[in-house]
Design a protein that fits this description.
By secondary structure, the chain is an all-alpha fold. Among the domains are: 103-183; 201-315, no CATH class. The chain has helices spanning 35-45, 61-70, 77-84, 113-126, 129-140, 150-162, 168-183, 201-204, 222-227, 248-265, 272-288, 294-315, 330-340, 343-358, 362-374, and strands spanning 7-8, 29-30, 52-53, 57-58. The protein has a two-stranded parallel sheet. Strands 3-4 form a two-stranded antiparallel sheet. The longest helix is centred in the last third of the chain and has 22 residues, at 294-315.
Length: 376
């Protein structure tokens, strides 16, 4: 594949950003485009688009744009969006109002998606975005599997960008992310047991029982696959397998390394998009950590593990061991993702490289290389 020139757009305000927000891209040439301006331009281009299209596909426009900017490829955003947004549908219009007291009765009602966005617009006018995020991560964490984790993903990507600069477009995008999460809110089966086992995800993974093939769906829909777990009693105790009260950063590294390995070593390649979300959704939790209280952190980590384990339960097979080896450089992997253009390739590559910065295991680079080949 012909490689394009590698570029970076490093803004002076990035100096104080936590390590997991940026890559070491000192090997590329700086140019003048301001990535913060590009982010707001992208949100303006997407302002009239709805949360889903083509019968239930999540609108990845804001997430993939933010991922490109975080990989210092702001130059690719507008061109990518111009093509991508042609498939999107108009944003729905609110016709009623979510009760600020009785809001729980509206959770999971996708017909109220516009109403939920309006609800969060109002919340964000009255409170800081960090306080709203923290409060509603606690409220929405049990329904983290909403739309295959895309409510969480959309929320987390804009939270990272809000940490760089607060603008009206970004505040509204946070309302869009939280609104989508609430409208698609979906609780997965769990037991009432409160005491978790003292295991890390890599240890608990070996205790997961797989859904029998005769009970699985025939297509790759994450949402439909997870619904099958309601009739699979062994899954209910999965949420209690892990211990999240230790270092949340290390927990996420262990979790994403485990499921990057699942992506690489699962013998069936029929459900690769499902396995992608077992990495990107838990990794996205990392982007919100600076704004979260201990209560919010521990809750969201438990449900992040539950989602990833649920995807493996619903779609996985016994893993086949491989020897991960360093192949492409980080810059080459970014170029491959940009050239590929698939929204999942862009988001997955960015997540894998972000995780590699803090946990430099070759499996992340191998996974990023594989995804650009498999979704071409």
């Amino acid at each position: 594949m012909k490689q394009t020139s590698r570029r970076t757009f490093i803004h002076k305000s990035f100096v104080s950003v936590p390590a997991y927000f940026l890559f070491d891209l000192s090997w590329v040439k700086a140019e003048s485009t301001n990535p913060e301006d590009v982010m707001d331009e992208a949100l303006e281009m997407l302002a009239q688009t709805g949360p889903e299209y083509q019968g239930g596909l999540a609108n990845h426009g804001p997430m993939a744009s933010e991922a490109l900017i975080s990989m210092n490829r702001a130059d690719a955003v507008v061109k990518w969006l111009e093509k991508y947004k042609k498939s999107l549908q108009p944003h729905p219009t609110a016709t009623t109002k979510i009760d600020p007291v009785e809001w729980r009765q509206s959770l999971g009602n996708f017909n109220l998606s516009a109403e939920w966005v309006a609800f969060f617009d109002r919340e964000l006018k009255e409170k800081s975005w960090r306080s709203v995020l923290n409060e509603w991560v606690i409220n929405l964490a049990p329904g983290l599997s909403a739309a295959g984790g895309h409510g969480l993903l959309r929320t987390a990507h804009i939270a990272r960008r809000l940490a760089q600069k607060e603008t009206g477009n970004r505040i509204h995008e946070l309302a869009e992310g939280l609104g989508y999460w609430a409208a698609r809110y979906q609780i997965m089966p769990s037991t009432e047991k409160k005491v978790a086992k003292q295991l890390q995800p890599s240890e608990a993974f070996n205790q997961i029982k797989l859904l029998p093939k005769e009970q699985r769906i025939s297509g790759p829909s994450v949402l439909r696959g997870l619904l099958r777990l309601e009739d699979f009693p062994p899954f209910a105790d999965v949420i209690n397998m892990v211990h999240t009260s230790a270092d949340p950063e290390k927990f996420i590294s262990n979790l994403t390394e485990t499921f990057a390995t699942v992506y690489v070593e699962n013998p069936s390649r029929n459900y690769i998009i499902s396995f992608i979300h077992a990495v990107t959704a838990p990794s996205a939790i990392r982007l919100m950590l600076p704004a979260l209280s201990d209560e919010a952190r521990h809750g969201i980590l438990r449900y992040g593990w539950q989602l990833a384990a649920g995807i493996y339960t619903a779609f996985g097979e016994t893993l086949i061991k491989t020897n991960a080896a360093l192949t492409d450089s980080k810059g080459d992997l970014i170029d491959r993702a940009v050239n590929n253009g698939d929204e999942h390739v862009i988001k997955f590559t960015e997540a894998c490289l972000r995780e590699y910065v803090l946990n430099p295991k070759p499996i992340y680079l191998q996974a990023a290389r594989m995804v650009s080949d498999e979704l071409s």
